[in-house]
Amino acid sequence: MNTIKSVNSTTESSLDTAIKNRFSLGKLSHLFVATGLAFSLAACSTYESDKQSNQAEKMAEAERIAVAAHRAEAQVRTQGKLQARHRLESQLFTMADLAETSPGYYPPQEPQNPTFTENYQQHEENQVFMTRDVPVSTFSIDVDTGSYSNARRMLNQGWLPPADAIRIEEFVNYFDYQYPVASESSHPFVIDTQVANSPWNEGRLLMRIGLKAHSVNEQQSSKSAELDQQAQSMDKNLVFLLDVSGSMNSANKLPLVKRALTMLSKQLTAKDSVAIVVYAGASGVVLEPTEANQSVKIEQALNRLSAGGSTNGGEGIELAYKLAKQAFKDNGVNRVILATDGDFNVGRVNHQQLIELVEQQKEQGIELTTLGFGQGNYNDHLMEQLADKGNGNYAYIDTLQEARKVLVEELNATLQSVARDVKIQVEFNPNTVAEYRLIGYENRKLNNEDFNNDKVDAGEIGDGHTVTAFYEVVLQDGAKFNDELRYQQRNQNSDANLGNELAHVKLRYKPLDDDNSILIDQVIEKQTITDFDAQSVDFKFATSVVGFAQLLRNSKYTGNLDLEKVIALANDNKGKDDYGYRAEFVSLVRMAKTLRSENAENVNNAEPTDIKG
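The structure corresponding to this sequence follows.
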């Protein structure tokens, strides 16, 4: 018995020492071992009837150890949650940093095609018109780029975008082209036209109309320099209207919003002001109008934001416009910048009411730019509508690289308009042109009588923006889409000079300080037609972009064009590509070709993704 007691005594002493050492080292696993040993020791002491009181003490000590172990476990669990949260935030910003250096880095692919739950406007492709019946085509310009970057997001995540997500004009206008600048003109741009035979439809032509608004970074004449100086000196009153609802709680939404707008704010000066309004179930002011050179204060306000709740976008817009009026700058830029996935699900959910509010505020001098983020519940249709009605522009931000493009490299074009309500009207000469069709701009078409009506709204063009539009044209002796009519005669104009003209291009725009439009025009002559291979690198690259967008839309007008030909055409005509956007385009076409090949093997996906490879 004494031997057993001696052993127990020695064991107790060793156990106490071990427990103290393990607590001092903070090893949670050793605490549980100590707890088990304590219970075993207490159980062994029950065999000793003369140690009843000692048993009770050991049981109490074991319980205290167990409680201490439980508390230690809870503390570690809490710390683990905090560490996990810090790791997640670190991963989100690492993801953004990767996106900055690698345009092709995107969040992992969704298990189900996200486009099934996203909202896109359905629009029919422009048809072919016979010049004898419909000689005039009228449309508003468009400088939005959201369709291209949104389609890029889908392709990089392994999905072919739906046809309705493709707006051809936003694909071609995503890229910059070296069009002539109005250096010796009182107008903010000149009309540039080129005509060449079509690379995918033999016997037909492509006619390109291009505009480039004069940029503050280029050498200008004294008149243009004066206009540029005026543009540079315009103070900016910006209100960031940010969606912080639960739907924005993902890596490519709110964290990217905060980084993007931090980049924008650092481009501003003390003459500019920034305010921040957020909305979820309710809306609120995070930052009152503040001098934009207080970058630390602005960045701290952005970094405090977190996502949660439903989306009451209507209430937030009203509050944002209120702050914009409060800090209104005469003869300056007054603009609300809306960053959201467009998932407005409570509050003012009538989209028509939202659009009417935006139109009313536009008339009071406050414009609206929309920046789209995220996937799955994305509302592309609403984002484009709001920007169009708010005299702003619409961009989709899928990476930090895109944020830098829109909000740093092209900041003047994004925020500073140089002309309002820009409309283009083309009259084709029936003596030389048999048929034509406008490629893209389906939701920008205007009635012919709208061209001269200054009350009809149209698109704005920003400082440095380029605008490109393509027509497919068939000459009288070309490969017509339609048969000749038996009982109709060609109208032969007696003026021989008109027989050399293909079309008369007219453009109307309003200066920033005048509600009366100004007309400029240009005649396109038949002798300007060239072989496609003789055209400029810009012309041929833009043609590859137009061709790719048509293939994604499953156009019936692409003739013998396929994705392999688009790849070759674009790759041979990247030209000057400082930021790698054209090289990235080639990669996207290759990705589309791969996805098309994969989907062709799946009979269930063959019909909606049947684009030619």
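The mean pLDDT is 81.
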